[in-house]
Amino acid sequence: MEAALVSGDDHLDLNMLPADVWTARLASTWGDRTPRPVEQANGSALWLADGQSWGLWHGRPSGFSGPKPLHTAFDRGGVEDLTTLRASNPALRLEDMDRDHVWGHVIFGPVTSIRTDDHAFMKACYAAYNDWLYEDFCVAAPERLIGVAMLPPHPEAAYEELQRLAKGGRCRQANLQIAVAEPRLEDPRWNPLWKLLEESGIVLSFHVTVFPGVSKAFDKYKGSPGATFLHAKMFIEQFLDPFVDLFAWGILERHPGLKLVIAECGAGWVPWVVEELDYRHYRLHECGDYWDDKGGIPHKMKPSELFKRQIYGTFQQSPTTMALTEFWGPDNLLWASDYPHPDSIWPHSVNKIAEYMGHMPPEQVRGIVGGNAAKLYGLDLAKATVKARIPMGANRAAA
């Protein structure tokens, strides 16, 4: 089977960003506070901003040698020299996409938070990253490099940045770092953002993030093999409260044009939660006579109906998700390669798709691996010059 692949979750992390992402746009205003890589005594480099370390930068050799406790896609793909910053170099990234037979990447920004207590500086940093993303990076191949803007984690700042992005007309999706977003989503301060997302047609996303609280939770177990298993709960913990809030406080129901992608949080836990929400919806309406003299029940639609209308989910390789395609529906699942993260399947995406989806109807697979993303983001896959040949059915074994 031939198909144009569009991965719904890929990355540009701090360690791979060009050195001048912020200095080119902020240094004249913010001076030495501007985020920039600073070389350390051992030859490695860290991002420093506003007096704080934001993490490693791979533009200098890390100085690390010996066995690694964590492998990324680059390790599995035989890429040894990370100083080329190939994930943020459009030409090199497109080479990696071609190697993986993938036409498009939906590209999320750094999953570590922009760390500063100065709100004005924070807003400037988010805006500068978004401008670099669209003006310097995605412009190299806008139908293939689909940049996801970063929104500040507070309602007023997020609204202001989304308003600016909407005027620019280049943004298809914007990500709210939900694990650090404050206040909780039922707060009416978020209402202008929901309305603007709906009016602009920009897709919202929640993506798993790494922030200081997560790191501290792992500190006790560092160096222990058991720490690896803690990731299984970290992904769901970040999403559960805000996911339920979308239904409990009527956010989706009040804003039927709002589309949301939940990325890299796993798809298998979602059906039970939606099923339970439907049951609670039934229990609520079972007592409708109680609520009649208290203003009635604003929740008219079943959560499962809202879910299928408005929510999309990404996954990499998941037999559980493939067993739940009837629940998710024909349009709401988005396959992802997660390049170049540790959970990534690059550069073996075609083999993994064949392994987990090769038993399914070809048209359904075409939707999941690219067609659904094309509908959501307005992509024309007829223009795709890179396509994958996916072994299906009995041909999988031979492959």
Write out key terms for the chains shown:
carboxy-lyase activity; ACMSD; lyase; 399 residues; hydrolase; 3-stranded antiparallel beta sheet; 41% helix; Amidohydrolase family protein; globular; 13 strands
Question: Can you walk me through this structure?
Answer:
Strand 4 and strand 5 form a beta hairpin. The model has no long low-confidence stretch (mean pLDDT 94). The protein is α/β, with parallel strands linked by helices and 399 residues long. It has an eight-stranded parallel beta sheet. The chain contains 17 helices and 13 strands. One of its GO terms (cellular component) is cytoplasm.
CATH architecture: Alpha-Beta Barrel
Strand/helix succession: EEHEEEHHEHEHEHEHHHEHHHEHHEHHEH
Strand order, largest beta sheet: 2-6-7-8-9-10-11-12
CATH C-level category: Alpha Beta
The number of distinct helices, counting runs of at least 4 residues, comes to 17
Shape estimate: globular
Which quaternary structure do these chains form? Answer: single chain
| Number of beta strands | 13
Class inferred from helices and paired strands: alpha/beta
Under CATH, the topology can be stated as TIM Barrel
Amount of beta strand: 5-15%
Q: How many strands, what sense, and barrel or not for the largest sheet? A: 8 strands, parallel
Determine the CATH superfamily. Answer: Metal-dependent hydrolases
Q: Average pLDDT across residues?
A: 94
Through-space gap between termini:
13 Å
Helix content: 40-55%
How many domains make up the 3D coordinates? 1
Low-confidence stretches: none
Radius of gyration: 22 Å
